[in-house]
Design brief:
Shape: globular
Structural class: alpha/beta
Helix content: 25-40%
Largest sheet: 8 strands, mixed
Radius of gyration: 22 Å
Strand content: 5-15%
């Protein structure tokens, strides 16, 4: 175990480290970017609901969400003449939509048609052209190298493929909470074990940092809660990510599992709705935790490896599909709209008579977004997304 690995192990997830255990200096002018990856292929059709389509209701006899209806809490919220929002997100994401800080991109995804979770996840994280995927690096790793000096972090158990090739990128699992692992007595005992060894300074530094950050996280959670009940799961993670990305980090990645809803998916309530509820609360907590000024300098993109079949299956669920819907959030996002290329939602426009087609390729969309955010040149964009055709959806 080298010095960095030792420091990270002692820190038990404290990410504010580089080689040697020093805290990153954050460029004050650099915008934040957080990529949220929904692993499992979420059913975007019951998130961004094509409520005006008769075919939608026919194809989903037990899981379709109800058309907009005044006074019905289980009906979709109208976003425009064709699309509505799942009602479970009305409290968390509704205010962001109302402030035009949230946009959706339907018919989005990759050209990978394997419908394999792992293959498609890897393809998206790599961000390479379909005929030249090497998986030697990931697109966020290449973005980090192009931006230079913009500190990255992965809120994951292990370093994800998307940061491969970026060098010394810290990763942190947020599953353990913000409580300190060691009390003062235990910390002194552990530090004493390394007294007089080559790891003495690293042990002392790592333990002190672990205690300090744990205390900061706990204080932040208490202050931000304002007496409200804890939102569970991802909502807690959202608050902790905000604590760290507000002052120290500018490129972030987090993955959220549990979206493979083959059986008993549910409609306005149930398995998928519960996941969306937790996701929405977590994103709202992240925005709130950053504060208005910092949220205005932040962009969050929510993606998944693929969507689900448009028709429900015999188990009242959905199977692996193709096109999906991406979310784009941020204080300065040009939201309150459904962006990108679209087609009418009917049987004739399904891919292979089962899925949404992909009309908005993720590499092109993200390349266009990053050109806007960072002012990247064509040469730099070609490094991040080789051979992509940047599409400017004017989202920022």
């Amino acid at each position: 175990m080298d010095r960095r690995q030792f420091l990270l192990a002692l820190a038990a997830g404290v990410p504010a480290l580089t080689l040697g255990g020093k805290v990153f200096a954050t460029p004050p002018s650099s915008p934040r970017f957080l990529l949220v990856f929904l692993r499992g292929g979420y059913d975007s059709n019951n998130l961004l609901v094509p409520y005006s389509s008769d075919f939608y209701h026919e194809a989903r006899p037990t899981i379709a969400l109800a058309r907009p209806a005044p006074g019905d809490p289980l009906a979709v919220r109208v976003l425009d003449a064709d699309w509505g929002l799942a009602p479970v997100l009305n409290d968390s994401m509704g205010p962001l939509w109302g402030r035009r800080q949230l946009a959706f991109i339907p018919f989005a995804g990759t050209d990978d048609l394997s419908r394999s979770h792992f293959e498609t996840q890897d393809d998206i994280e790599a961000g390479e052209a379909s005929d030249a995927r090497s998986y030697g690096s990931g697109f966020m790793g290449r973005l980090s190298a192009v931006l230079r000096g913009v500190p990255p972090i992965a809120f994951t158990d292990a370093l994800p493929l998307t940061f491969r090739g970026a060098g010394d990128v810290p990763n942190i699992s947020l599953k353990g909470g913000g409580k300190a692992v060691f009390d003062d007595r235990q910390a002194k005992i552990l530090a004493g074990m390394y007294q007089g060894t080559s790891l003495q300074s690293a042990a002392t530094e790592g333990l002190e940092l672990r205690q300090q950050v744990a205390q900061d996280l706990q204080a932040e959670m208490v202050a931000a809660s304002r007496g409200a009940v804890n939102a569970r799961g991802f909502a807690q993670q959202g608050q902790r990510m905000a604590t760290l990305m507000r002052d120290r980090f500018r490129l972030g990645f987090v993955d959220v599992g549990g979206w493979d809803t083959h059986v008993n998916q549910g409609g306005a309530t149930g398995q998928l709705a519960n996941n969306l509820d937790n996701l929405g609360k977590g994103l709202a907590a992240f925005a709130d935790g950053l504060g208005e000024a910092e949220w205005n300098d932040t962009v969050v993109v929510v993606v998944s490896e693929f969507g689900r079949t448009f028709r429900e299956n015999g188990n009242k669920g959905t199977d692996h599909g193709h096109g999906t819907a991406y979310w784009v959030l941020g204080g300065k996002v040009a939201g309150g709209r459904i962006a990108g290329r679209q087609v009418a939602v009917n049987a004739a426009n399904l891919l292979q008579n089962r899925d949404y087609p992909v009309l908005n390729n993720y590499r092109d969309v993200l390349a266009g977004l990053m050109r806007r955010m960072y002012g990247l040149s064509d040469a730099d964009l070609a490094k991040v997304f080789p051979r992509a055709s940047a599409r400017d959806l004017q989202l920022v």
